[in-house]
Amino acid sequence: MQRRQRGQPEPVCGLIADSTVNLEYDYDGEVRRYPDTRLVYWAGGNPFHHHQDLNRLRRAFTRPDTIVVHEPHWTATARHADIVLPATTALEREDLGSGRRDTHLIAMHRIAPPAGEARDDYTIFAALAARFGVAEAFTEGRTARQWLEHLYGSWRDEPMFEQFWADGELKLPPGREHHTLFADFRDDPVAHPLRTPSGRIEITSATIAGFGYPDCPGHPVWLPPTESGPLWLIANQPHTRLRSQLDAGDVSSAGKVAGRERIRLNPADAAARGITTGDVVRVFNARGACLAGAVLDDALRPGVVQLATGAWFDPVEDHPTGPLCAHGNPNVLTADIPSSRLSQGCAGQHAAVDVERFTGPAPHVRALHPPLLHPPLRKGR
To answer: Which CATH class is domain 13-171?
Structure first.
């Protein structure tokens, strides 16, 4: 389990693979040291969707002693874990739904009982707390439903929770109709300075320049790409699902080509490679490869291909062509590098690749099929 020093911000999720391989990393002008990660406990999210260079992440997942995940679906993250605790979906639990700038607070009613032995995350953690002898400290004597009532009551007296829950929603007070960025500063820069050394807008920073980062000098600059290839891949968000969620659903499946994520190519690039719409193609670079279904589209500029993220990672073991995802996840191609040493942000939207028509029998997509389960042991065994 990772432990961090008081006051030290935790590394962003894009550093998960890096933290199991390297001992130190640069961030915001400092050299920091990763903790010795022996156990990974992942509740919420799917790193085998959003992380870059998934083949490197696979290797990283072999280093901790134990990996535990909460999952309602048989995602690639679940398939790479040692222990999978079945968790409920949003339709099988009660919750409060809201987001920034939302106009309503939503009473998220459970519309179906939990499948099998699935539990909501709170119930799982409460059971673990009980095993560690700290159940009362964790739950404070409340069930999941009572926590919803407590949280609601901490900021709202009327209507009562029972009325809100029956109504299904609560209209929130309206926010500002118009927001102007830095409006106070623009009106009076002296009275309302910015949080910069000068209090004003700065396009250079002596502090950042002093860090000596080659990938982030102290002023805005265009840096040439560190790799090249015949085609540039754009890995955008999909329109048939929310990121990787419900990739096994009908809407997402209907958008696939030959059962794989579609890749758009300019007709000229496709013709030069003998590719036509509907072909299974291999998209590859030095980091890995994936199979995708080709779609020709002259709205795409020559030299650029587009492959949406979110197809559940489906590695093919020991394929003759090398590491291969059968389903079309572009993060087998993106580089696991930060946007800069200053921010350690994600830089996984683009990659240099090539595409070729895939010949021979294409591996079956297995990512959307549930695991084979052994029958439970009889009592007493």
So the answer is: alpha beta
